[in-house]
Amino acid sequence: MRLDGKRIFISAAAQGIGRASALACAAEGARVIATDIDAEALSTLVDEDNRIECHRLDMRDGGSVAAFAGRQPPLDGLFNCAGFVHNGTILDCSEDDWDFSFDLNVKSMYHAIRAFLPGMLEQAGKTGGAAILNMASMASSIKGFPNRLLYGATKAAVIGLTKGMAADYVGRGLRCNALCPGTVDTPSLRSRIAAAPDPVQAEKDFIARQPVGRLAQASDITPLVVYLLSDESRFVTGQAVLVDGGVTI
Ligand code: NAD
Predict the structure, then answer these.
(1) Which residue's CA lies nearest to atom 32 of ligand 1?
(2) Which of 22, 66, 121, 148 has the most Cβ atoms closer than 10 angstroms to its Cβ?
(3) How far is CA 132 from CA 7, 111, 197, in A?
(4) Can you give the pTM of this predicted structure?
């Protein structure tokens, strides 16, 4: 299996892309540490082979993340998936909105990487490689969208963080990449559609911006998650990898 024997931590694993990634990594033989702030939703995440262990963890709480990492054996893979979509222009974005989004979308990655990195470098020294994957988006430095000012700013920061990490640790067996999905049909997308003034039109608009003519399913994204956390991507680092249904053609 493609992730046989690897220990992989995933944040925001209770639903959406994080949950599907936990299941996909477990199906490829990984031991998955699945975490989320929503303990109830997380409790329903079970895989056939019992390779997933679930823990409630708030990625915005640096102290808890560090304490959690301190209790864990070293990781082979870290997937920082947690993030929030702010909707609106700069005039709709309060300073609190700004701080919340940067805290969850970017600073949580700082907490996780600092906490897990020493063990991952140790692990990379033994096995030849370890991988960090950070969730960005095509809505970032790659492409701008209306009402995604704050979201795009945070995800562009994720790409910068990713490239900096890749540059600093390329000689020590640690790779770091960012994933940049198009629009994916997940619970939070469904709530963004439901909150629109005309939900039917909002769904059509989301679909229309993807030339393949449909929303992505989480299962369209997980093959890249598995690849970027596996040794198959051993020559890939510092990249913002798009999986966007042709938006950026
Ligand atoms: P989602 O938004 O439906 O679920 C997010 C999960 O994050 C929830 O389970 C929630 O409980 C958890 N969470 C929230 N705050 C947390 C915290 N402080 N600590 C730990 N967990 C927390 O999932 P999604 O739509 O798959 O999005 C996952 C990631 O993918 C996000 O970073 C998002 O920006 C990114 N992304 C999503 C899309 C999309 O269209 N859905 C596209 C590109 C990128």
Answers:
(1) 83
(2) 22
(3) 12, 13, 38
(4) 0.98
**Same structural domain, 189 and 154:** no
Report the SS3 class of residue 19: helix
Written as six digits, the tokens of 61 are: 């709480």
The model's pLDDT over 154-190, given as tens digits with 9 standing for 90+, comes to 999 999 999 999 999 999 999 999 999 999 999 999 9
Is residue 147 located within the same domain as residue 209? Answer: no
The residue assigned the tokens 């909150």 is 195
Q: Is 169 a catalytic site residue?
A: no
Same domain, 81 and 200: no
Cα 83 to averaged position of ligand 1 atoms, centre (Å): 5
The CATH number assigned to the domain holding 96 equals 3.40.50.720
Which tokens hold the place of 44?
A: 């329903």
Question: Which residue's entry shows tokens 């994080």?
Answer: 18
CA of 36 to the centre of ligand 1 (A): 10
Which residue's C-alpha comes closest to atom 8 of ligand 1?
12
Ligand 1 atom at shortest distance from the alpha carbon of 179? 44
